[in-house]
């Protein structure tokens, strides 16, 4: 049987002590059952209209009038928000009880808000070194707050209807499907963690049923081997080309490093070099990679090797192990890669992602299997690799990498040998 709709009203309990202020409380009614929730606010009996059940006050008393005017405004907004939350909950679960409605008020504290709970999650993630996930969560919170007109969003209002309206708004903004999927997946992850932590009740209807959380085919980012060869051999010896040349060199080295993600590239350490190989773990997944260092890699590494007690392998960031320094390095790399792509007349802008996508496609062109490429890129699913391809045991990846580098055939210009003493 479908239950009736709830009602919420403000009421007043006078004090049992004469002359003392009494308590304001919320009255929740549904299906013949009533529950109360005491607010933290109090007023005097003379300031409560029993018949109309509302606050009244003498405007000639400035001290009380100012306080009560603000109190009425705050309580009116609170009542409107609770009634909206109740409607959302009843639309999502017609069988909800007055206890469920009453719980909405109990969850109005800071931790029960999307930003409040996410802030706790982000602190733990940052402490664990998972900064990318923390930043993704923060990005989602900002997006949801913007959707909600800049207002805070409470976890209990995240229902199927809320998620549908959120997605519709993103589609209306013209966001790419993969961007919509990203925000929906981040919101789902945060909400599910809140449910497991019993901060918000589990829904009868999954709020994310029907929400787009897939992976759409993206515009092709990869460039072919001929374009890679043009990048490698571009004459960047003119005055003023130093920054572009550096961006080109880092692009080629990340390409040679089997499409290493830029965050991993920037944080490579000298201790990651062992017995002629680069051995590191991907920051995103913890997956271990081992890449044999070929002569073409050594030539570039020699130009950008750090000195002294710097633990980092390459001069990429202005300051080691600093999030802001990394963000600046990434922005700088993409900016000068953009200038390089214009210089070469490419029809698409070069970015750090282009190196990663191109490695996947180019490996495929020289005969590597999707499973080999998937292993090389650290994908957990070959489906993701197929999107990188658009239409990889260590021996397999080492052989394919050497074959690809040899296909380029020519050494880098403006680079010097002599990295062997660091290896």
Percent in strands? 5-15%
End-to-end separation: 74 Å
Global outline: elongated
Whole-number tally of structural domains:
3
Alpha plus pi helix count: 15
Mean pLDDT across all amino acids: 83
CATH architecture of the largest domain: Orthogonal Bundle
What is the CATH level 1 assignment of the largest domain? Mainly Alpha
CATH topology of the largest domain, which one?
A: hpI Integrase, Chain A
Describe the protein in words.
- With 423 residues, the protein is mainly alpha-helical.
- The chain has three domains: 7-106, no CATH class; 110-196; 225-408, Intergrase catalytic core (hpI Integrase, Chain A, Orthogonal Bundle), CATH 1.10.443.10.
- Helices cover 50% and strands 10% of the residues.
- It has helices at 62-92, 98-106, 114-127, 131-147, 160-172, 177-196, 225-233, 242-256, 262-266, 295-304, 323-344, 352-365, 370-377, 382-389, 394-408; strands spanning 7-13, 22-30, 33-43, 48-49, 54-55, 273-274, 277-281, 288-292.
- The model is unreliable at 391-395 and 412-423 (pLDDT under 50).
Helix and strand arrangement:
Blueprint: E1 7-13, E2 22-30, E3 33-43, E4 48-49, E5 54-55, H1 62-92, H2 98-106, H3 114-127, H4 131-147, H5 160-172, H6 177-196, H7 225-233, H8 242-256, H9 262-266, E6 273-274, E7 277-281, E8 288-292, H10 295-304, H11 323-344, H12 352-365, H13 370-377, H14 382-389, H15 394-408
Antiparallel strand pairs: 1-2, 2-3, 4-5, 6-7, 7-8
Helix pairs in contact: 3-4, 4-6, 8-10, 8-11, 8-12, 12-13, 13-14
């Amino acid at each position: 049987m479908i239950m009736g709709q709830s009602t919420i009203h403000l009421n007043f309990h006078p004090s049992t002590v004469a002359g003392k202020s009494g308590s304001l409380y919320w009255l929740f009614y549904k299906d013949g059952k009533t529950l109360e929730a005491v607010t933290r606010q109090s007023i005097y009996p003379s300031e409560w209209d029993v018949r109309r059940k509302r606050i009244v006050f003498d405007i000639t008393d400035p001290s009380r009038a100012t306080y009560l005017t603000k109190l009425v405004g705050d309580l009116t907004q609170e009542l409107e928000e609770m009634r909206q939350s109740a409607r959302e909950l009843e639309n999502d679960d017609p069988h909800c009880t007055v206890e469920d409605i009453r719980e909405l008020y109990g969850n109005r504290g800071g931790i029960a808000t999307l930003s409040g709970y996410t802030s706790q999650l982000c602190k733990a993630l940052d402490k664990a070194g998972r900064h990318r996930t923390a930043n993704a969560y923060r990005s989602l919170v900002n997006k949801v707050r913007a959707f909600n007109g800049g207002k805070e969003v409470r976890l209990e209002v995240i229902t199927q209807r809320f998620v549908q309206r959120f997605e519709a708004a993103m589609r209306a903004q013209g966001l790419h499907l993969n961007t919509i999927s990203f925000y929906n997946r981040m919101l789902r992850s945060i909400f599910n963690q809140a449910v497991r932590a019993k901060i918000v009740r589990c829904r009868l209807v999954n709020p994310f049923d029907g929400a787009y959380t897939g992976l759409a085919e993206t515009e092709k980012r990869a460039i072919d081997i001929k374009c890679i060869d043009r990048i490698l051999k571009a004459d960047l010896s003119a005055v003023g080309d130093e920054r572009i040349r550096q961006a080109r060199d880092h692009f080629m080295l990340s390409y040679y490093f089997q499409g290493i993600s830029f965050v991993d590239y920037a944080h490579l350490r000298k201790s990651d070099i062992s017995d002629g190989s680069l051995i590191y773990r991907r920051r995103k997944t913890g997956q271990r990679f081992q890449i044999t260092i070929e002569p073409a890699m050594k030539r570039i590494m020699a130009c950008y090797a750090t000195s002294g007690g710097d633990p980092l392998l390459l001069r990429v960031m202005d300051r080691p192990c600093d999030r802001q320094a990394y963000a600046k390095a990434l922005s700088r790399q993409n900016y000068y890669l953009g200038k390089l792509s214009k210089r070469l007349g490419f029809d698409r802008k070069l970015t750090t992602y282009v190196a990663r996508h191109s490695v996947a496609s180019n490996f495929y062109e020289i005969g590597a299997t999707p499973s080999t490429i998937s292993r090389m890129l650290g994908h957990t699913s070959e489906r993701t690799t197929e999107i990188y391809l658009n239409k990889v045991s260590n021996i397999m990846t080492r052989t394919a990498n050497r074959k690809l580098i040899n296909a380029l055939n020519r050494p880098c210009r403006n680079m010097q040998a002599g990295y062997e003493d660091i290896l």
